[in-house]
Amino acid sequence: MRQLLIILFSFTTHYSLLTPLSAASGGNPPNVLVILADDQGWGDLSLHGSQNLNTPTLDRLAQQGAQFENFYVQPVCSPTRAEFLTGRYYPRGGVYDTGAGGERLDADEETIAQVFRTAGYATAAFGKWHNGTQAPYHPNTRGFDEYYGFTSGHWGSYFDALLDHNGSLVQSAGYLPDTLTTATLDFIEQQTADQTPFFAYLALPTPHSPMQTTDEDWARFANKKLTSLATNPADENPDHTRAALAMVENIDANVGRLLDRIQELDIEENTIVVYFTDNGPNGWRYNANMRGRKGSTDEGGTRSPLFIRYPQKIQPGATLNTIASSIDLLPTLGQLANITWQPAQTLDGISLAPQLQNPNLRLPDRTIFSYWSGRISARTQDYRLDHQGQLYHIPTDRGQTTDLSTKHPELTASLQSQIDAWRSELLTPDAANPDRPLTIGYPGLAITQLPARDATWSGNITRSNRWPNCSYLTDWTSDDDRITFTAHVGQSGTYQATLYYSAPKSAIGTEITLTTSNGSQTTARIQQAHTPPAYGMQHDRVPREESYVKDFAPLDLGQITLPEGPTTLTLSTLNISSNTSLEFRLLLLEKAAN
Length: 594
Hints:
Elements (H helix, E strand, L loop, with lengths): L21 E2 L7 E8 L17 H9 L1 E3 L2 E2 L4 H10 L25 H7 L3 E7 L17 E5 L11 E4 L2 E4 L4 H19 L3 E10 L7 H5 L18 H27 L6 E7 L21 H4 E2 L1 E4 L8 E3 L3 E2 L3 H8 L2 E2 L12 H5 L10 E5 L2 E5 L3 E3 L5 E3 L15 H18 L11 E3 L6 E5 L4 E3 L3 E2 L9 E4 L5 E8 L3 E10 L8 E6 L4 E5 L27 E10 L2 E10 L7 E10 L3
């Protein structure tokens, strides 16, 4: 299987610490807290000129440490997260999409959590993962001791959400960003009490849609006049902007909770705090007049805030103009924490630690690449060559309005040559592999989740929404309909199967059968109607594109035997009545104890 192969590509600049993995001696290892916002743009901060909102905590965090003027991420979610985790451009790790399996990070890619855990750190991730649901892609099998959140690209409700806690389904309470922050605080407090250094990764789900806010946050924005506008105001949806900014102010408040508690625990001096976002804004709104938004390889789609505070080693108030990237965070944090290791794969990122500790130091010249959906752009310290071959001098033209490619033909040709080389090396025919099967029963996680978004289906069945993530399958009306999962079993054995469904009274007595390609089969009869309403609309501030969610009921399907290796799991019905429509959300498989 491709996800278990070692990918041995390399490209241009790299950073490597050449001694065996260890925690360096000398003082207590620093704690690390990384906070990542979802779909927040560069312009969604009062620090960056927006007059539409107030972000005093994030503004203060920037001023208490170092802030980067030219930090770049990839244009969308999964790629940026993969680069943060590995220090490598995301196509190297098998990531090529934000769904349909393309979000999964190859299992042999070494992650920042594995590096820190091997160095003696307690590791935890909270919130949006978006780099794989099943082991060996799940956070608990990528170096995180603790995980609490959701593994897909977005969640359908930010209130009282059904979450994943170390592989098991649990019900949260309250507004999700608040809940995730509380869980992070609990982890920090526990590790501090145990005197264990921690690496905590809080991936907040906002301001990604659905555009849900608390009533309190929305009250400040519902009728607010927007004075900082999108570059082309006609493109802006004011209520979408208001909702996004309300969500960002909530982020600011939650970051304040974290920083206050770190101070109260007297660990502020020895804690590295990092804040950045995963791509440009998810709507046309104020973004410092840059071209592009989420999904774009231009400045507006890839420029992100980056704040790093570490009182022991970083003097406050530094503003760094050096270009930097999400691929740099692993080597940077590793060096700041005095961890030395031999990376399992060659890193594309470099350590920014020397300049963080000496802002006058000049780092080597380099080129950073942005890629999405066939488009590649190249960014040097002063120039960007966009995906159409147009050249811009960014220090004087951040909005990319004046093409200089004919004025500087040699530079244009050089950057185009670098883009071609990057494409040739990283975007090989097998870089995007849509045929990677799902995985079941891999070591490190007792329960395998097979959600509707990962299924294929036939017959009358449809999906509740074109965006897969937390969607469900509906219109299951015939014994000829099928729901199928193509998978690879990591450990042979007996597995307990549980199906999450909704069904009307007419479905009582319908048999649902789970069959595997190796001949194992188990059947259960629906004995109880379950017709939950869809919910979430009461908290939406603008109409959503994503599916609403429901609370589905579990059905014990019994046990099946799965041999190690490839298999196909198929769900079908027997004796379904003509006026019945079932809905399917999730299949859980838990390996039975020997």
